[in-house]
Amino acid sequence: xxxxxxxxxxxxxxxxxxxxxxxxxxxxxxxxxxxxxxxxxxxxxxxxxxxxxxxxxxxxxxxxxxxxxxxxxxxxxxxxxxxxxxxxxx
Length: 90
Ligand code: SF4
Ligand code: SF4
Known about the structure:
Layout: E1 30-34, H1 44-48, E2 56-57, E3 60-61, H2 74-78, E4 84-88
Antiparallel strand pairs: 1-4, 2-3
């Protein structure tokens, strides 16, 4: 391979714990709205959230951390009682 065609390595994380520096909430175009009165605290959303941004407090989920929620909608899809709906906007 010539130098011109050399592909630079990608996906390298040179510092552990750096994900906290990237506030993926700025990517969001939709927001999950959680209805705590419908929630049965099954924690399925917590386990499926790819950003790990649905915090637990005393073994119960609490409000989403919107600094990191990127609005993917997975939590709304997996919730068995439809306690999360996605709304347009940040
Ligand atoms: S929308 Fe996506 S990133 Fe945000 S809380 Fe739900 S699963 Fe997590
Ligand atoms: S999946 Fe739905 S019912 Fe289960 S903890 Fe999350 S919001 Fe609550």
